[in-house]
Amino acid sequence: MGSKFHAFMFPWFAFGHITPYLHLANKLAEKGHRVTFLLPKKAQKHLEHLNHFPQNIAFHPLTIPHVNGLPPSAETTSDIPISLDKFLSEAMDLTRGQVEAAVQTLRPNLIFFDFAHWVTELAKDYMIKSVCYIILSATTIAHTLVPGGELGLPPPGYPSTKVMYRDNDAHALATLSIYYKRVYHQITTGLKSCDIISIRTCKEIEGKFCDYIASQYNRKVLLTGPVLPELEKGEPLEEQWIHFLNGFGPGSVVFFALGSQIILEKDQFQELCLGFELLGLPFLVAVKPPKGASTIQEALPEGFEERVKGRGVVWGGWVQQPLVLSHPSVGCFVNHCGFGSMWESLMSDCQIVLIPFLGDQVLNTRLMTEELKVSVEVVREKTGWFSKESLSDAVRSVMDKDSKHGKLVRRNKAKLKDILVSPGLFTSYEDKFVEALQEYLV
Ligand SMILES: O=c1ccn([C@@H]2O[C@H](COP(=O)(O)OP(=O)(O)O[C@H]3O[C@H](CO)[C@@H](O)[C@H](O)[C@H]3O)[C@@H](O)[C@H]2O)c(=O)[nH]1
Fold first, then answer.
1. What's the ipTM?
2. Ligand 1 neighbour 344 (Cβ under 6 A)
3. Which residues pair with 40 in a beta bridge?
4. Does the C-beta of 361 come closer than 6 Å to ligand 1?
5. Closest residue CA from atom 17 of ligand 1
C-alpha cells in the first residue's frame, strides 16, 4: 500500500514512553501519514512543543478514571512514586471504553500500544492492525519478558552471559518485584497477540537480543532504530546553562541526570553531592529534590554550596539534556541508563558513567559496560548504597587522561558512535519500518 495510513498511538502513561512514541509519530507525519495520539489530558500541554506536524498529529485527550489508591490528580508516572504505578495501570485499563469510542469514530488503520495489551482484542473487533511498539531495550524484553524467564533470571536460550543481574542488584529487583507480575502479563500478552512487534532499537547494538525475541515469539520483529528527535528543530539551550558551561574548558564538565522518575533518599542525595565535591571537576547535577524535601537547597549537605561555588551546580528541575550533552564543555555524562538517556549518551561525545536504579536500567548498563564496553558502572554495595568514593572513582577512571581503562572505553565508544552516525543508518531503519507497515496494510 503506497497510500497514506492513519495510526492511533496509545503508550503507557509515562513521559519515558509517551515522548519516544511522539518522536515516532513525527517521523510518520513527516511522510504524510496521520496520527491520533491518545494521552492523559494534563500531559498534552507538556508535549505540544514536541509535535512538529500538528496538521498530521492530533492529540486525543483521555480522562483518567478514579481508582482507589491513585491520588486524584495523578495522570502519569511522574505524578506518583513507583509503588503506586499499579493503580495508574488499573486506571489505564479503565480507559478502554474511551479508546474504543475513538476507534469506532475515527476508524484508524493501525493502533500502536505497549502496556495496554487489550488493544489487540479491540483491534480485531474493528479489523485494524495492532502494533506492539516497545520503547524499552530489546535486551530487557529478551531477559525479562519472554515466556520461561522469572524475576531476575533469564529464560532458556537467552543470548548473553554478561547482560545479567548480580548480587548487588537486589535493590533494583526489589523495586521491579512491585510491578513485575502485572507488567509481565501485559507485555507478554501484547507481544503474543499483536499483529506486528516492533522495537525502538537497531541491530548494531542489540541484534542478537532482537533475533532471540523473534525466535521466542515466533514472528518477525520490525526495528525502528532509536528515532531520535532533531535537536535543531527544538528550542536552543537556556541562557543560564550556556553561560555556566561556557565558563569551562572543552570536555571538562561532568553532567549528572537520572531521567524523569528517580527520586533519591536524602542521605544518598547528600552522598552524591559529596562525591562531586570529592571529584574536584566542574559539574552540573540535575535531579529531583530527594524524598522528604521540597527543594534541593534544603537538602544539600552543610556548607556544600560555599565549598563548590563557581565550580558546580545542583539543580532541582528539568534541563534540556540532549542540548547540555552537545555543549562542548561537557565531557562526561553520569546517568541511570534509562533507554532514552542510553541513546543520547551514545550519540554524544561524552564519556559515560552509569548508575542504574530500576530493572531495565541495570540490564542496559550491563549491555553498555560489559557487552559493548563503552562505559563504566559505579560500584554499589549489597544494600544498593553507592559511596562518594565509588562515584568519584568511576568518573575519574574515564576522565583521567592517563587512565588505561578510560582510553579503552573512549576508543570503543568512538568506534560505535561512528557506526551509529554513518549517513542514512537511522533514516533507513525508519523508512524500512514504514514500508513494512504499508505492505502489511495491503
Ligand atoms: O532533566 C531532564 C531529565 C530528562 N530529560 C529527558 O527525558 C528523557 C528521559 O528518558 P530516559 O532516559 O529513558 O529516562 P526515564 O524517563 O527516567 O525512563 C523511564 O523510561 C525508560 C524508557 O524510555 C526506561 O528505560 C526507564 O527505566 C524508565 O525510568 C530523555 O530523553 C532525557 O533527555 C531531560 O531532557 N531533562
1. 0.98
2. yes
3. 62
4. yes
5. 259
